[in-house]
Design a protein that fits this description.
With 508 residues, the protein is mainly beta. It folds into 2 domains: 224 residues, no CATH class; 201 residues, no CATH class. The strands form 8 sheets. A 7-stranded antiparallel β-sheet has the order 1-14-2-11-5-6-9, covered by helices on one side. The longest helix has 24 residues. It starts with a helix and ends with a strand.
Length: 508
C-alpha cells in the first residue's frame, strides 16, 4: 500500500510538471541558450586572420540550415577591441543547405571569400587574392578603421526570415530564385540578382534552424581548432527579424519580448522579465566564473590559450556614456578601461595534483593585483605560449580604480599542466589579494521571476540578481610530436583541440 501511495505521489508530481510546462510553453516565448547548438541566433566567440611569427591563421565559417524550409540569415563581424562592426551581409539558404566562407589576411587587415553558390547580399568575393575587405564603407569602399584593428574579433548570425519550403513558390519569387540558385552549381548564379532585390515582404516567422562552426587553421603549424557556435532560440517571438542589408539591424538588442529563460541543474527553470531587450540576452549569457584546463607539456611542446568574448558588452558600454550593469567600467578614447576579474594568484590556479599556485608576490607592484577584461574579446595565454597570437591580452590592473596603470601579461609561475578558475564576481576580496585592490563585482537585476523546480513546485519573485559577466569562449591546447619515424617515412604529428569553457551561475 505504501509503495502504491508513493507511486501515485510521483505520478501527481510528474503530471504537475507536465501541465505547468505546457501552460508555460504556450505563453509568451523567452530567449534561451540551446545546448543542442541550433537556433535563431548564433554567436561565434572568435574569428582571426592574424599573421605573425607565432602563427598565421585563417578562419573557416560554416552555416547550416537544418530545416526543410528556406532561410535568410544576416552575418555580422565585429572587431575584438570595442565590438565595432566591420562587415555584414545576408546569406540565403535553401532547405538543408550549408554555406561556407573563409576569413583571410588581406595586407595588414582581413577579408572574406566564399566558393559557395548560395546567394549573398551584397555579393562577396570569390577570389582568394582579393577578399571582400573588413572595415571599409560598403558603398564608397573608403577605409573606416585601420586594417590592423579588424584581423580578429567575433561573429553574430541572425535568422531574418523564413520563405517556406519553396515547393509552390511562384515564378519570379525570392523563394523560387533561391532554390534555382542552389541547384545551379554556378559560382555566381544569375538568380542572385532577383534575390538581392528582396525587401522582406515574402519573409515570415518560423522557429530558428541555424547551426554552425568556426574552424581556425594555421597551415604553417599544421594546426586546426574547431569551435561550435553558441545558439539562442526564441530570440523573437512571432515576427521575422527582417532588415535591409544597409541597416545595422537586427542586433542582440532586438530580442522580443524582453524575457530570459535559464535552466540550472538543481534549481530548475528561471523565467525573468527585463526592462530592456539586451538585458534578456545578457542574462542568458551571464556566468559568475569560468573554468578550463591548460597544457604546457614539454614532451609535446604544448601550448594553451583561453578565448573569452562578451557579445553584449557593446550595448552596455558606449563611449561617452556611463556603463550599464553588469559592466562597471566606461570606455575611454585613451587607455582601455577594464572589467575586473579575480587574479590567478588569488588561489585560482591548480596543478594536476590539486595544489594551488602559491600566492607569492613578485616584480609586480602591488603584488597579486586584480586581472581585467579590457576588450570585447580577450585571449589568455599561459606561460611562454602564444597560441593565438592575439593582441587582446589579459590585463594586470595595478591601480585600484581599474584605470591607469595596466599591463597585459600571460599567466606565469605555473605548473606544466593543470587547470584554472577565473571568478568574474566576488562579494569580497580573498586573503591572497592585497588591500585596496579592485573588487570583481558584477551583477544585473531583473524584474518579475518565476522558478519552476524539478519537483513540480514553483516560486514567484518580484526580482532576481544574477552575478558575473556575459562571457562565452573556449580553451585551446596543442600537442606537437614532430616528425614521427614510420616505415613509409617521417610523418608530421601535430594536434590541437578547442573545448568550451565550463561555466558557473550565481543568482540571488
Amino acid at each position: 500500500m505504501l509503495r502504491l501511495t508513493g507511486l501515485l505521489d510521483r505520478i501527481r508530481v510528474t503530471l504537475a510538471v507536465v501541465l505547468f510546462a505546457m501552460v508555460w510553453s504556450s505563453s509568451v516565448r523567452a530567449v534561451e541558450w540551446n545546448p543542442a547548438g541550433s537556433g535563431d541566433v548564433l554567436l561565434f566567440p572568435y574569428y582571426t586572420a592574424r599573421q605573425g611569427e607565432a602563427g598565421s591563421f585563417v578562419t573557416l565559417l560554416t552555416l547550416v540550415n537544418e530545416s526543410e524550409r528556406i532561410k535568410a540569415a544576416r552575418v555580422r563581424f565585429y572587431e575584438g577591441a570595442q565590438g565595432r562592426p566591420v562587415l555584414e551581409f545576408v546569406v540565403y539558404l535553401a532547405p538543408r543547405d550549408t554555406w561556407v566562407g573563409a576569413v583571410l589576411p588581406e595586407g595588414s587587415g582581413a577579408g572574406i571569400v566564399t566558393p559557395d553558390s548560395s546567394c549573398t547580399d551584397p555579393a562577396l568575393s570569390r577570389d582568394d587574392g582579393a577578399p571582400t575587405s573588413f572595415g571599409k564603407d560598403p558603398v564608397t569602399g573608403s577605409e573606416q578603421m585601420p586594417p590592423a584593428e579588424v584581423v580578429e574579433g567575433y561573429i553574430e548570425v541572425f535568422q531574418l526570415g523564413d520563405y517556406g519550403t519553396g515547393a509552390d513558390a511562384p515564378s519570379g519569387s525570392v523563394a523560387a530564385a533561391i532554390l534555382s540558385a542552389s541547384l545551379s552549381g554556378q559560382a555566381e548564379p544569375t538568380e542572385c540578382a532577383r534575390v538581392r532585390s528582396d525587401d522582406g515582404s515574402e519573409a515570415a516567422w518560423a522557429p530558428g534552424s541555424l547551426a554552425g562552426n568556426a574552424t581556425y587553421i594555421d597551415v604553417f603549424r599544421a594546426l586546426e581548432l574547431v569551435q561550435p557556435a553558441v545558439a539562442l532560440v526564441d530570440f523573437v517571438a512571432s515576427r521575422p527579424s527582417w532588415y535591409r542589408p544597409t541597416r545595422d539591424r537586427p542586433t542582440l538588442a532586438d530580442a522580443q519580448p524582453s524575457i530570459s529563460l535559464v535552466h540550472r541543474a538543481g534549481l530548475g527553470t528561471i523565467r525573468t522579465q527585463w526592462s530592456r531587450p539586451i538585458e534578456a540576452v545578457t542574462a542568458v549569457l551571464m556566468t559568475s566564473a569560468v573554468t578550463g584546463e591548460f597544457v604546457l607539456d614539454r614532451a609535446t611542446a604544448s601550448q594553451s590559450a583561453w578565448l573569452l568574448t562578451m557579445p553584449t558588452r557593446r550595448h552596455h558600454v558606449v563611449p561617452g556614456e556611463p556603463p550599464i550593469a553588469p559592466f562597471v567600467s566606461p570606455v575611454s578614447d585613451g587607455s582601455p578601461r577594464c572589467e575586473p576579474t579575480a587574479s590567478e594568484r588569488w588561489g585560482n590556479l591548480f596543478d594536476r595534483t590539486g595544489r594551488a599556485l602559491p600566492a607569492s608576490g613578485g616584480f609586480l607592484s602591488p603584488p597579486n593585483p586584480a586581472r581585467g577584461l579590457c576588450w570585447s574579446t580577450t585571449a589568455i595565454d599561459f606561460g611562454p605560449s602564444d597560441l593565438l597570437g592575439s593582441r587582446f591580452g589579459w590585463a594586470f590592473m595595478r591601480a585600484p580604480s581599474g584605470s591607469g596603470a595596466i599591463s597585459f601579461q600571460p599567466v606565469t609561475q605555473i605548473p606544466e599542466n593543470g587547470w584554472m578558475r577565473v571568478p568574474l564576481h566576488l562579494d569580497e576580496l580573498p586573503p591572497a589579494a592585497p588591500p585596496g585592490q579592485v573588487l570583481p563585482s558584477h551583477a544585473i537585476t531583473g524584474g518579475a521571476t518565476t522558478i519552476l523546480r524539478s519537483d513540480g513546485t514553483s516560486e514567484s519573485l518580484p526580482s532576481i540578481t544574477i552575478h558575473g559577466l556575459p562571457v562565452i569562449g573556449f580553451y585551446a591546447s596543442t600537442f606537437r610530436n614532430g616528425a614521427l619515424p614510420l616505415a613509409s617515412g617521417p610523418v608530421l604529428a601535430n594536434y590541437g583541440s578547442a573545448l568550451p569553457l565550463r561555466r558557473e551561475w550565481l543568482m540571488r
